[in-house]
Amino acid sequence: MTAERTAAFESRGSRMVYTDTGGAGTVFVLVHGLGMGRSALEPLAHELAESGRVVAVDLPGFGDSPKPRRAPALPDAGDLLAEFVRSLGVADPVLVGHSMGTEVVVEAVARHPAISSRIVLVAPTVNPAERTVRRQALRMAQDLADESPLVLARGAVAYARAGLRWFLLSLGAMLRHPVEETLPHVQARTLVLRGAEDRVCPRAWVAEVARLVPGAVLREVPGRGHETMIRDPRPA
């Protein structure tokens, strides 16, 4: 694996720090979930870097990226991601989103279809039947109850860096986002992944995500929960 480079991208009043592990082959762009950062996806980045180039971002306000004046709405975050992907100057990267990151990826390719023809949505949020702070907090607590110490440690560090206020502002933006209205506009080939033990993303909802995206393929990873990529990114 080649050396990792850290840089920053600035636009729309936001600054996104990212790491770029250069390599030949497919380019993967990784987008983390709520409260996390690119560091949470390091195991996946290392796995993918064996066969290509991996670019992992810290969304505004998370990881090493400074907080903008307000938490961007998910369509705005999608625009920012699309602009970032264009700045890389690469042809047809694979966009991989986890949890809230799936909503950012969906908005990016729906609004800017030329940036990518291939996306992966891992643990897509948010189940419309439970689109409240209370229900989401309960589901996250249930899912983390059985998680590994590695997942809990990475999550604790990332959440502490983001801070409670920014976490809640971003959660509010996520809960207000009707992703089901955007999914049918996705033209990219789409793989939808769900950990079979994921309590945050019920199977019925994830199946609906796959149904709404034209031609999407749904796969479940046995024995994994919502943080499947953090716990163990290797094929199950």
Explain what you see.
The chain has 236 residues and is an alpha/beta fold. The chain has one domain (4-223): 3-Layer(aba) Sandwich (Rossmann fold). 38% of the residues lie in helices and 21% in strands. The protein is built from nine helices and eight strands. The protein has an eight-stranded mixed beta sheet, with helices on both faces. α2 (74-88) packs across α3. The longest helix has 15 residues, at 74-88. It is globular and about 40 Å long. The model has no long low-confidence stretch (mean pLDDT 87).
Compact summary:
The chain is an alpha/beta fold. It has helices spanning 42-48, 74-88, 100-111, 133-144, 149-162, 164-175, 179-182, 203-212, 228-231, and strands spanning 4-11, 14-21, 26-31, 52-57, 94-98, 118-122, 189-195, 217-221. Strands 1-2-4-3-5-6-7-8 form an eight-stranded mixed β-sheet, sandwiched between helices.
Give the SSE layout.
Layout: E1 4-11, E2 14-21, E3 26-31, H1 42-48, E4 52-57, H2 74-88, E5 94-98, H3 100-111, E6 118-122, H4 133-144, H5 149-162, H6 164-175, H7 179-182, E7 189-195, H8 203-212, E8 217-221, H9 228-231
Parallel strand pairs: 3-4, 3-5, 5-6, 6-7, 7-8
Antiparallel strand pairs: 1-2, 2-4
Helix pairs in contact: 2-3
